[in-house]
Amino acid sequence: MDSTPAAGENISVLRKARGMGQTKLARLSGISVSYLSKIENGNRPATPPVVAALAKPLRVSTARIYGQPFLGLTEQADLLNDLRDAVRRHTLPREDTPAPEELAEGLRRAARLRSDTKYLELLRELPTLLGQATATALDAGGDALAWGQLADLYGCAYTVTHRFVQPDLADIIVARQQWAAQRTWNPAAEAAAAWNEAGTYQSAGAYEDGLAIVERALGQYRGGRSSGPESVVVLGSLHLRGVVLASRHRDKNATEEHLRHAKRYASQIDGDVLMHNLTFGVGNTALYELAAHVELDQPNKAVEMSTTLVEEPPPGLKPNRLGRLFIDLSRARLAVKDVSGAEEALKAAFRVSPQMAEIHPMSREVLRVLFVMHQRARPDLLTMAERAGLTA
Fold first, then answer.
1. Residue 278: beta bridge partners?
2. Dist CA 357 CA 359 (whole Å)
3. Is the pTM of this model over 0.90?
4. What is the model's pLDDT at position 1?
């Protein structure tokens, strides 16, 4: 990966380009001057709520602050352009309709690559696979299964573009997912698309709007009076999205309410279930609860509940969920000044989910702080920083 300016550096450059001093930007963002100074100097991580607050007066996207490491002459940039072209051609696929078993195997492979956080490999597959799935759905006319397959595949594409910090492309993909989902006559497919739609607001730091999307999707799905495991997964997942949005919005009551509903739904199924690219169950709900403690400035609670999760990870959870667990734990340990523990959590994230750890904004932010402030000479930190593109 190419070396990429960190969030603090980008904030400093953007602030000066706007002719703002630190005092003015801090006031407009609702944070202290000391906190802003530490972020710009690399002594504190730029968390999602803070980046969202800073982006408004700077009049930029949150993606612009975090930086986009994949805009240069890289394989990732080329593959993202290929995906962009395939998404654009959503009614004019270049590919022919494949044999049903060939498409089914391709879809299973895409879902597996997504769960295993093998994003680069998934990017290589998606353009052709999207064309094939689109051709199949168009040739099948009103076949709900074919359109459902396409909707789920767009869900995989959303994950990739979200992780590679491509918000504009992610917005288009969600619109395509909704277009396909509406042709399934399956409320669960539409709810899964709404889950990703709320995710676009989350990425943009528009947490209140994202919560409105979640509430609307919950109301519409409940109105369909669906039942069974699919219903539990969809409703529980929507509440988990609500947990993230509410905690980043610093709304403790709404966070607890969404978490309460999620736990109730999780108790109705055995283990963690994957449907429509939504993972839901007791284990994943616990991971979201830990993350919410971090967002609500309760790192001690996050560290406390992490002991069981780390010693006995919930069975059935894939690298995409376990990687996020260790990234959130690194944030919590850094916040309680457990520098060695934060480094160990990052090492675990790089071990179980290397591609996620390399590009996730908060993994990069915690790593940057550790590298700049505390242990620049430690070889393991240097190796991780090089892999994340944080060294010149």
1. 275
2. 6
3. yes
4. 46
